[in-house]
Every structure is written in C-alpha cells, then in structure tokens.
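Service request form, structural biology core

Requester: graduate student, group of Dr. S.
Request type: structure prediction, single chain
Budget code: on file
Notes: please return the result as structure tokens.

Sequence provided:
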Amino acid sequence: MQIIIIGGGTVGAAICKQLAAEGHSITVIDTDQSILNEISNICDIFGIAGNGADVAVLREAGAEKADLLIALTLSDEINILACAAAKKLGAKHTIARVRTPEYAELMNFMREEMNLSFTVNPDLAVAKAIHRMLRFPSVAKVDTFSHGRVEFVEFTITKNAPLCGKKLIDLRGIFHYGFLVCAVLRDEIIYIPSGDFYLEAGDEVCITASEEDLPHLLKEFGLYSDPVKNVLIVGGGRTTYYLQKMLHQSKIKMTIIEKDKVRCRELAERCPCTVICDNGTKQELLLEEGLEQIDAFLAISDSDEENVLISMYAQTVSSGKIITRVNSMSYAELFREVGLDSIISPQTSTVYNIVRYVRAVANASSNETSEIESLSRFMNDRMEALEFRIKKDIEGLTNIPLRLLQKRHGILIACIVRNNRVMIPYGNDEIYSGDIVIIVTAQGQMKNIKDILRI
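Core staff response, request fulfilled:
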C-alpha cells in the first residue's frame, strides 16, 4: 500500500518502522528535516519537509494516489484538516489522531462530514486499558476480544502457585473452567507451548478464557483479589479526564493529585472526586493521601521520569495495584526488571490501532476471505493476538478438525467464538464460516487467517 504519514514524532516513527517492515511504501511529512533524517536511518521511507495540511505538500507526497494517509501531528486541527484535504485530493482512506476530549466526542457525529475513515485517541485507549486492569488487579495486563466476550491476561507464576510444575495437557483435569495457555516468556524466550510443556516458577504466561470464567479461574490460580474500591491518581491530564468517568460509573473512589491549577479546576468541576493541587512527587503528600492503604496507585502524569520514580517509591510502601504510564516503550524492559509490570503506553495503543486498521484495509482491498477485527500485543510486545472474522469457507482451514490442520510453527488457535458462544478449542473442533477466530503468534505481520497455514 502507498501510505503517507504526517508527523514523524515518537508515534510516527514507531508506525513507520512497523508498516515499512510489513512491506508498505511510506512517505513521511514533517516540518523538521532532522526528524525525517532520523526516521530515514531507521527504515526505508521518502521524506518531505513541510506542513501536512498544505495542499501543495500533499500533492508532492502523492495524496491523489495514496491508499492511506495517517495524520499524527501534535495538533488535532492540523490532523483533521490534512485528512479532509487528502480525501478531497483522492486518498482512499484517512486516519487522524484526535486527543482533545471535545473534538473526540464531536468526531462521533462529524466523521463522515470531515472525510475521516478512522480516528485514534491515545488517551482514551489508555484510560480503557487501565480500567480493564483495575478489574483484575492481581494480573499484569488484561485485554479483551470479541466485544468483551474473550479475555486475555498476563501474569507471572510464583513458586507455590497451583500452575507451577504442571504439564499443560493435564491442566483441564485439574481446573474446573476452560482456558488455554497461549504463550510463555521464560529467560527472554517466547514459547507458543504444546501439551507436553511444563510451567515453572518465574514464567510469564498469557492465558485466554471467557469473560464469565476468568474470575473463577483467577481464584483457582490463587490470583484473585478483592475489587478495587479506592484509587490514588497522580496526573490530571487527558487520560485522567477519560478515566474518571469510567471509575465513577464503577463506583470507585478517586483522589487526583495535579500541580496545574487550570487542570485541577476543570477536573473538580467535571468529576465527583477529591482533587488536590500539588506536586505528586512529594512522598509526604502521597502518604497523607493514603498511599499505604489504597487499592490502586496510578502514576499517569505527562512525565515518564516522574511516573517511574513515584511508582518505584509506591512499591516500597503500598501493597495495592501500581500502574505506570510511559509515553515511550523503549525502556519498558528496564522498568519491568525493577518490578513495574503494569506499564501502559499511549504510543503502543496508537500503533496497535493503526496497524490493525492498515491490515484490515489491505485485506478488504484484496477481497480476502477474512478480516481483522482487533489486534493486541503481549509479552513485552513480542507476541501478537489477532481476532479474525471468517467471511466464507477457506480451503485447507474451515470444516477440518484442528488437529489435522497444516499450521505453520509458532502459531496457536486460541479461541473460537460462534453464535456469541466462546469455545476454548480442542483438536476435534472445526472452524466454520461466520466464526470469530483468535490467533496467537510470535512471528507478527499476519494479515489474513490463511497466513497460519503452511504453503
């Protein structure tokens, strides 16, 4: 596909790297030539220095023939205008990053009028991810598929855990609810395990189960904890704006610490919670506000450094869930080594959403037999989980027992959803037209369900 990206910042560079690796032709527009030079050193792109909302610049970039334009500048207005102009020039699809809450709400009504194919809101995506994590505070990461029917969770096996030392093929006879171990991270190696794989203490595992069964499973695993009732939040930015609405609906009590007076006033007016105008890095302030007793502590300010430092301090005094927001995931591995396992990133959420959309567009344009519904990554972004909708019968895949499929190595069929019923698949189960199928792979770049088959 011919793709134009406007804005070569952290998110733009990450998307360039991903899409270039998947074989797309990328043109990047940015006002800063040095940024274009940096991206060119990372991946094969064509750079144009200029304003992405300038029609002359869009023409130079080839917007008339572009399959997709992605606008990722820091300005919502420029992103929206660039998409509208590109669509008028002939671009087939457009994506705008829209972060301002008022604009984000308006886009639901104005998407067609503004010629926007798709919008991404990193702060809203992060708020939703945090809300999911607070449902199961004992696990490191939670994500959902098939409109919430299927849950994926990531956690570490401890020495005395019921899963420790067990052989995967024996698990269904031990536990009372259906689930599947999709991936294991051990000694920095990702395993898509077979039935004779043994789980060990220290393994990071990703499992999938139905929405109904997961709470019961976590109890059997010794991982269930009481629901979160009170939260201490440092940072009153856009993520907090979206999150406070969700927490209020879930009847979770909030205390928000924010040093910007204007933000504090806006939050106090809009949400029924305690808002403190002060510096959230002060240890004595955190203790005064109940850090030692709270159920969850969220470090989600605009500063990565402050978020990491106060999260590390919170670990020393609190037994509650600690969630840390970092804008860049380049140091995520280091953060996890010091015990910060629940890390959330707007950058990562944006990349997931855009890559999923690009793959879906590529499938649709080639009249494929399946389409991508959603995409997420686990295990330090080294494992992909993709949700496919099967549009029609596929030779070699549908109406064949799973145990007889000629699958490529390192790929797992994790779940099948049929008529709203979640199935953790056995070897004799089959995939039918109309099913939702969730695939797990450590190989990446899957665009179609047929990619799981050996050619």
